[in-house]
Amino acid sequence: MDLRDTETSDNDSAANHNSTGISGTSDAATPAGSEPVITSGGDGPTGAGLSEALKAERRRSNQLEKELRGLRQQLTRFSEINPEEYARLQEAERQKQLLEQQLELRERQMEEAAAKRVAAVSAERDAAHERVQELRKERLLERAFSEAEGRTGGDTRGTFFQVFRSMLWDCFRLSTSKDGADVLEPLDGQGQPLLGDDGRPMTTGDYLDQLRIHPVYGFLFQQRGAMGSSTAPAALPAGGFVEVINPQAMSASELYRAGFVTPARSPRS
After folding, report:
1. Which residues are 58's β-sheet partners?
2. Which of 196, 220, 230, 215 is nearest to 260 (CA)?
3. CA 261 vs CA 44, 213, 235, 253, 254: distances in Å
4. Is pTM, for the whole model, over 0.85?
5. What is the distance between the alpha carbons of residues 203 and 68, in angstroms, rounded to a whole number?
6. Residues 73-86: tens digit of each pLDDT
7. Are 207 and 194 in contact (CB under 8 A)?
8. Which stretches of the chain score pLDDT less than 70?
9. Cβ-count burial of 93 within 10 angstroms (0-12 exposed, 13-18 middle, 19+ buried)?
10. In the chain, how long is the greatest CA-to-CA distance?
11. Which of 236, 241, 177 shows the shortest CA–CA distance to 203?
């Protein structure tokens, strides 16, 4: 056999032995039951997925590092806070809130007080207006009573006009005429304008003429009939005095009878 052939044969055997050893080592390194790792270039689908996964992992890592740096900065700031200074700031904030509450309460109290003053002034104004209207109505009513020959005088309990006013005040309403003057308007029991026989609103003079012959209110006026002064005065009884009749102390029935009863005359001698 040629020597070169023998060396070639020995080299082939060694190469086969080395190849077998490497293959066995690779097989021994791979755990049983596990799949071998498939590696390929970035050109295939599997390579693209791995690249996206690496990018996502990198982004998540960067976000975590950013959050970590923020937490470290907060810890650094907190470590620099002086507890006494922090307590002072907290107390100052509490005092500020308390002052704001007090200011808000004071503003609300001032608004309520102002509203009460406005209401009081409005009520006083309304009362003054009502009083003025009452005086204007009383002036017209007293003038109409005088023109209708209302009785004058009275006693310590009041005058005839005051009695007339207390009894018939609500029977009149202060109104304004077409020319803007104050007028009295007689009213019925429902507070509506009192109508005459012709269906038109009755005037104050016509209404007082009816009151003159009224069985209850007639005593307030100077009578022209049985109670009038047109007839000659009756002779006085013995002693020269007659009983003084006080209409204010008489009932309605007594006033009615007194309107049609004449004083008794003394018998002829």
Report:
1. none
2. 215
3. 140, 15, 15, 12, 10
4. no
5. 100
6. 887 777 677 778 77
7. yes
8. 1-45, 79, 224-269
9. exposed
10. 214
11. 177
